[in-house]
């Protein structure tokens, strides 16, 4: 269903919605695994839970990840685990924060 929506005018909106999750895919994957492992230890067997409960859990995890990823990516270029993975694979420390270029504009007068 989601793939079909990507062929519609909603594509741009979906990209904006999912971009924070995409940039922090490894971090989100591992945190989702930890969260779902914790949820699986709640009373009852997860395979016996009704589908609406499972859907609510998945939507809750996804919404939480989006709510945490979006503000994280304002000052930072990558998620913490994506940054660590690049450091290990590149063999050098990659920049974590966005690079801000300051341009000084002169009005032509001398003081």
From TrEMBL:
Residues 2-91 form the DUF418 domain. Transmembrane segments: none annotated. Coiled coil: none annotated. Signal peptide: none annotated. It comes from the Bacteria. This is DUF418 domain-containing protein.
């Amino acid at each position: 269903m989601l793939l079909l929506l990507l062929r519609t005018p909603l594509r741009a909106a979906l990209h904006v919605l999912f971009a924070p999750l995409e940039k922090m895919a490894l971090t989100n994957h591992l945190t989702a695994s930890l969260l779902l492992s914790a949820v699986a230890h709640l009373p009852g067997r997860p395979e016996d839970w009704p589908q609406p409960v499972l859907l609510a859990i998945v939507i809750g995890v996804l919404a939480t990840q989006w709510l945490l990823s979006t503000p994280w990516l304002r000052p930072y270029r990558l998620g913490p685990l994506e940054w660590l993975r690049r450091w290990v694979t590149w063999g050098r420390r990659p920049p974590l924060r966005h690079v801000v270029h300051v341009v000084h504009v002169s009005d032509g007068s001398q003081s």
